[in-house]
UniProtKB/TrEMBL annotation:
Protein name (database record): histidine kinase
Pfam families reported in the protein's UniProt record: HATPase_c, HATPase_c_2, HisKA
GO molecular function per UniProt: ATP binding
EC assignment: 2.7.13.3
Amino acid sequence: MQRVILKININNELDVVLAYKRAMQLSERLGMQQANQTKFATAVSEICRNVVEHVGSGSIQFNMLEDGGFNYLEAIVSDRGRGIGNLEWILNRQNFLPGNRGTGIQNSKKLVDVFSIESEFEKGTRVVLRKKLPALGAAVSKGVLDVWAEEFKNEADISPYAEIKKQNMQLLEVMDKLHLRNLEAEQQLYEIRRLNGQLQQSNQDISQLLEERDKKNQLLQEINLNLDAFAHTVSHDLRAPLQNINGLTTALEACLEANHTTEAQAMFPMLRQQTQKMDRLITGILAYSLSGHHNLPKKVLEMHTLIHQVISSLDVPPSFKFEISENLPVLYSQEVYLFQIFSNLIGNAIKFHDQPENAVVTVSCSILDEWLTFIIKDNGPGIPVQVQKQIFHMYDTGSALHRSDSTGLGLSIVRKLVEEKGGKVWVESTGRGSSFILTWPASEIVVEEQ
C-alpha cells in the first residue's frame, strides 16, 4: 500500500535544495539512522539535479509504502524530457570520471536499497528511489503524514546558502563516522591477520609435534622389536651353555658315584669351557646394553696409545704383526666407546684369522671435511659379499664365519657406538683380506696450541 506524503516541482537549484531538505526531514521523522538519512537525501539530490541540468523541469513525490514485508520511504522523480538514449550503457558501465554524464544515476543507485529507472524517447524519465524504514515507520498513520505535509507547507522560505552549508556539515559528520569505521575496520583487519599468523604458527608447531611424535612412535616400535629379538636370542644362547653345564654335571655326578675319577677329571675342562662361554656372552650383553649412553664422560685420548692398550688387552698370538700409523689424532671423546670399537674390530681380526703365522693387521686414519676415517685392515680369509651387511646385526656372525667362542654381539656394539656419534661403519672385502672402515666426527680432534 502506497501513501503519498508530499510533492515538489523541480525547476531550479533552490528546488533541488528543498527536495534534499524534505528527504532529510522525512527520513529523520520516520526513524531512519542518520547515515541512511544522508544517503537517501543525497540520492534524491543527485537525481533532481539531473532533471534541472538536462531537462529543465520535473517533479518529485515522496511516499510511504509496504512491499515484500518491508516498509520504505520512496521518492519518485519524473520529467517530460526527451529521455535517456544510452540508459543501458550508463547502468552497466563500471567506472565514471567525475562530472561525466550518468555519474548521478550510478551514485544514486549505490545509495538506496531499491533503484529503478524508466526512460522513453520524447516521453521523459521516471526514477524510483527507496530506502528501508525501521519498525517505527510502520506505525505512522495517514493523519500524521498529513500534519507533516501541512508543516512543510507553512515552513518559512529556506536559504539556499544555509541549507547547502547544513548539507555539507551533515556530509562531513557522515565522513567522520566513515573514517572512524575505516580505522576500526583496519584495526580489526590487523588483529585478524595477527591471529591468523599465530594460528599458522600454532598449526606448524602442532604439525612438528605430530611429526616428532610419529618419529618417536616409530623409534619405539623399532626398539620394541629389537628388545623382543634381544630377549629371544639371549634366552636361547644362555640356555645352550646352561644345558651343557647341566649335562656335564649329571655325567660328572655319575662318574663320581661309580668312582670313575679319570673320566670325571676329563669333564672339568669341558665344564670350564662352558662357563667361560657364558661369561663371554654375559659380558657382551652388558657391553651392548651400556653402549650409546650420552652421559659418559669425555677425556683427551691419544689414539696411538689407546690402540696399543687395546692390543695389549687381547690374547694375541706371538706371530701376529701390527702396523699402527704414526699420524693417529688426539681426540676429546668417550674412552669406553673407542676402546670397545677397536677391541672388537682388532679382536675379530685376530680371532678369525686362518693363517696366524703370516697375520698382519694395520690401523690407519685420514680426515676429510667434517669426518675422520679409521681403517682396520687384515690379511685374513676375507668376508663373503653376501654376509657383509648382516654381520653388523645382533647375534649374526655369518654362517661362514661362525665360531664357538663368538657371541655375535661385537660388531653390533661397534655399529651402535659409531652411529651414536653420527658416523657409519662398513666392511670392504674381495677375496682375501678385510678392511673395516668407520667414520668419526672430526669436531672431537684436539688442536695443539702453537
